[in-house]
Amino acid sequence: MPAFGIALFAAIGTFLFGFDTGIATTTIAHQSWITYMDKPSKALTGAVVAVYIAGEAGGALTQTVLGDKLGRIRFMQMMCIIVTIGTTVQTAAINMNMFLAGRVLAGFAVGGLVGTVPIYLSEISAPHQRGLIGGISGCGISFGTMVSNWVGMACGYASYGAVQWRLPLAIQIPWGIILFIGLSTFMPDSPRQLIRKGHVDRARVEFIKIRRDLHSTEAQEEFALMHAQIEYEMEREIKSYKDIFRLFRRRAMVSIAVQTMTSLTGVNVIQYYQTILYKSLGISSEMILVLAAFATIKQNYYYVFVGCTSFFLVIAWFYFPETRHKTLEEIAAAFGDKVVTLTEIEIAQEQTVFEEKATMGHVEDRRTEAHHQV
Question: Where is the protein found, in the record's own terms (predicted)?
Fold first, then answer.
């Protein structure tokens, strides 16, 4: 399956992030939910968002610990199971405690997925497609948020009762199952992850499947460089967070800055609490569920976000290196990391292995054809 198709399917993980994040916005706005949950206090209503974010943080931290040990595919499968349980618990909630428990579980799983999917996509994508494919995961978040708000608004027109908020929550349940099936069947392992775990032959096979856009010689050279670079990095494996800033200071600061500047645009405040803000303005319940802009709110509130965004624009313009159409090794070099170089002998050795694998592949294909003919 082409990398682009794999990226679209893997974006289900980030779609879940956007949908599960956005669905809380309309859920807490439904009077039927407020009544069913025995009119929760403002603190409990805020907890609907807070415990989800706490779960996301836990899932993201778990990804740093287990992501490499389990591998990208296995880790995402585990998160699919947890998110299915979490969304089911939310849908079936009979009280606030049960609802919050479901939010924590779903947040944990989505935090792990949203931290893994971009890494997975960057590892399987070609340099000339990496920007597009990486952007698909971000689009998944935005699309999920948009869909959740429209679904929440549409269900607001249902007969008054639990179906107004249970149905939107239930729509989340199948996506984790669908992604799990895809991960178990056709989605390839990350060649880089396989090399790190010592499965070089499997990594080579997966690389050939993914990078069908390359000619034989180009594939051999790129795989050989990737293999050599990963082995070099494993020899100086990071043992502590201090080593991250010592060896990869610029890369670490750029990563932190990107996440920080994203939050300081004000998108989270707007997304999570827009319905409460609308209600304080005396806007009707139906209009609250439809509105997607804040034109009626005074602009002073946003000056802080405008200032932060402008500041980070300058930082990104002058400090962030360009990564367009570059391999991950070339990107590492752009950040000042040491990148290995290959000798002609090493390239020739890799070419020999590729030819042997290709010959074995032809033999297997012929055996399969003969078996079917019999």
Answer: Membrane
